[in-house]
């Protein structure tokens, strides 16, 4: 019955993705931004689902299994990151890109700094493609692990099933198909992360107090806010967990939802929904890790904790639903990253840099070919199962957050930012992330996002002071302002299926 339920779920998601594509125009803006018509629910749940990924079920639950309640330091960090994204970055980025006709982050950077050299476009495109390739591979790794435990399907076969299914509906549904499936999958994820932990605590472990007591008996350090760390290591541990959320403003696949949101009003409603989503998924995932420590105390691979709990403690019908939730998390991120890499290669590089004189319809088909390519590349990397999902995601997250976050936030508010400041910031954030992550002594000290972001911000400010900002900088900032009289993009009276 579990397999049947899961098959029904796959069929429904596939249908949603294909049907959704029929409601978008055939233009690039339609295929890559859903014609900028996303309402608050679509904006928030699509951003949340694509943000959470297989990491929330596989990686974060496994990390909580190992470290205990100290994992919850991530929650306030992500709350700050969400607030920055939805209140500081999102509204201004939405207005600016809508008024300038920009459909990607490289578009924004080139427009904002009047860069006719294509340096910013090419550099930002390369960063996106490189880190998103690793990101896609991490999601397919999570899928392979879930199939292995729950369906006894060979890991490599599970990877192939995941990439084939996700690639196909992304090909024809475009961004609207991705958003609609993300919303459906987001609801499934929330329901499972509320119901499943409560079921295990009250019906398998005897209630909240017995559960906490059993966790403490398993290992008292699991109930310590500092985990197993002591001394100076506590600082690095806590700051590293808090800092994970600060990578939010630099994630292009999340920012793309803001660019596709139809109005300031939609962004306001999305903010409330997103915060509720965050608390549910972070708390549920971490509870499942602790529950697993009690019910499955001897796991050799901690990232198998959630699939193993489903396999051992759920009836087949419920297990099918939970498996659907895991796959929802994985697909909602994978499809978002595929469509964004597709946009980067076809629009930002092929069309804008190489100035290919072809129709928008044909450009969309080039984007679809790129979707196939990134899916194949991600599958090849995932087949190696070289890294844990948790660390694979954090590596890509840090690289994108440190590279794009500082440039986006500061350039939306400070007219003194220069093209060369932005270039050096992008390069320094990327390089610092890679170097820090690859040197064990440094990576053990603190999460690479922290030093990489610090270097990126510092270099941005210093170089900008040493170079000249565009003469139109003040005008460019005014375009993003809420009181700009030229705003004709708020379609408040035009409800859509994404409301």
UniProtKB/TrEMBL annotation:
Per its UniProt record, what PANTHER family does this chain match?
Answer: SODIUM/PROLINE SYMPORTER-RELATED (PTHR48086), SODIUM_PROLINE SYMPORTER (PTHR48086:SF3)
Query: Which Gene Ontology molecular function entries are recorded, alphabetically?
Result: proline:sodium symporter activity; sodium ion binding
Q: Which residues form a coiled coil?
A: none
What residue intervals traverse the membrane?
6-23, 71-89, 119-137, 157-175, 187-211, 270-293, 313-331, 365-383, 389-413, 420-439, 445-463
Q: Quote the catalytic activity from the record.
A: L-proline(in) + Na(+)(in) = L-proline(out) + Na(+)(out)
Note whether rRNA processing occurs among the keywords: no
Which spans does this entry mark as compositional bias, Polar residues? Answer: 483-499
GO process annotations (BP): proline transport
Alphabetized PROSITE patterns for the sequence: NA_SOLUT_SYMP_3 (PS50283)
Question: What is the recorded name of this protein?
Answer: Sodium/proline symporter
Entry membrane topology: Multi-pass membrane protein
| Species the sequence originates in | Halorubrum halodurans
Quote the Pfam families the UniProt record gives: SSF (PF00474)
Q: Where in the cell is it found?
A: Cell membrane
Region described as Disordered: 477-499
Q: Family per UniProt?
A: Belongs to the sodium:solute symporter (SSF) (TC 2.A.21) family.
Q: Which CDD domains match?
A: SLC5sbd_PutP
Query: Which NCBIfam families does its entry note?
Result: sss (TIGR00813)
């Amino acid at each position: 019955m579990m397999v049947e339920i899961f098959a029904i779920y796959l069929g429904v998601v596939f249908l949603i993705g294909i049907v959704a594509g029929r409601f978008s125009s055939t233009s690039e803006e339609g295929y890559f931004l859903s014609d900028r018509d996303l309402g608050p629910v679509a904006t928030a749940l699509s951003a949340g689902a694509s943000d959470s990924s297989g990491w929330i079920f596989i990686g974060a639950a496994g990390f909580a299994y190992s470290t205990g309640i100290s994992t919850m330091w991530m929650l306030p960090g992500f709350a700050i990151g969400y607030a920055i994204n939805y209140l500081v970055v999102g509204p201004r980025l939405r207005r600016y890109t809508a008024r300038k006709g920009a459909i990607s982050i490289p578009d924004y950077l080139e427009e904002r700094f009047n860069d006719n050299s294509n340096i910013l476009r090419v550099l930002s495109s390369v960063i996106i493609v490189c880190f998103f390739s690793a990101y896609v591979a991490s999601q397919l790794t999570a899928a392979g692990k879930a199939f292995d435990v729950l369906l006894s399907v060979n890991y490599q076969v599970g990877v192939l099933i995941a990439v084939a299914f996700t690639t196909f509906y992304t090909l024809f549904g475009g961004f609207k198909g991705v958003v609609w499936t993300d919303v459906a999958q987001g609801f499934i994820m929330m329901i499972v992360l509320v119901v499943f932990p409560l079921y295990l605590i009250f019906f398998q472990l005897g209630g909240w107090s017995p559960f906490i007591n059993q966790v403490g008996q398993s290992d008292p350090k699991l109930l310590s806010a500092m985990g197993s760390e002591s001394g100076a290591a506590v600082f690095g541990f806590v700051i590293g967990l808090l800092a994970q959320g600060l990578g939010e403003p630099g994630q292009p696949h999340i920012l793309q939802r803001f660019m596709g949101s139809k109005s300031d009003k939609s962004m306001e409603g999305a903010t409330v929904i997103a915060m509720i989503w965050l608390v549910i998924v972070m708390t549920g995932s971490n509870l499942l890790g602790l529950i697993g420590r009690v019910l499955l105390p001897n796991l050799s691979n901690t990232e198998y904790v959630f699939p193993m709990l489903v396999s051992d403690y759920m009836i087949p019908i419920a297990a099918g639903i939970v498996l659907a939730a895991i796959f929802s998390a994985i697909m909602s991120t994978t499809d978002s990253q595929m469509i964004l890499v597709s946009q980067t290669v076809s629009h930002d590089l092929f069309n804008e840099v190489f100035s290919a004189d072809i129709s928008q319809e044909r450009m969309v088909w080039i984007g679809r070919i790129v979707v196939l390519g990134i899916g194949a590349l991600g599958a090849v990397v995932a087949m190696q199962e070289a890294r844990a999902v948790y660390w694979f995601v954090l590596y890509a997250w840090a690289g994108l957050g440190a590279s794009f976050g500082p440039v986006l936030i500061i350039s939306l508010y400070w007219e003194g930012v220069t093209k060369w400041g932005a270039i050096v910031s992008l390069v320094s954030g990327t390089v610092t992330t890679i170097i820090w992550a690859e040197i064990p002594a440094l990576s053990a000290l603190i999460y690479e996002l922290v030093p990489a972001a610090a270097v990126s911000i510092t270099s941005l400010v210093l170089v900008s002071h040493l170079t000249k900002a565009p003469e139109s900088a003040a005008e460019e900032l005014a375009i993003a302002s809420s009181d700009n009289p030229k705003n004709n993009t708020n379609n408040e009276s035009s409800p859509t299926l994404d409301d």
